[in-house]
Amino acid sequence: MIQRSIRGIRVTDYTDIYLLNVEFNPNLHAFSEDKVKEKIETLIHHTNDVVLLCESDDEVIGYIHGSPYELLFSESLINVLGFVVKERYRNQGTGSLLIESLEQWSQSRGYSGIKLLSHPSRVQAHRFYERRGYKFTKDQKNFIKKFE
Q: Is Transferase set as a keyword in this record (predicted)?
């Protein structure tokens, strides 16, 4: 059994986060290490977001990023914006440790729950969430407009 620990993100983690992102989705290579570093600095210094990392033997093997989700028709939630585990550490409890840590963090700060989006093709991920008590609520389309 591998030894793992959870901690908060540090700016110096930017290379590890970049590599995790690219392993998860090779198209993310365009968002450079420097941009990841800038984003971590912004998250740490200018938001109420939380990013928890999982380490094993000083190697970052996964992370989960939660952000306060405030609506005018709902209690406060945490929205999962990113959740990645290194492929060779999947199905070994790392994802469970990360999401349970985020749940504890959220609950201890008075949030009413956690919401997340998962691509329709990620059937294994859906089973992972459902086993942990997450309920499927709706299908929706995401739209984005980029400003050039």
A: yes
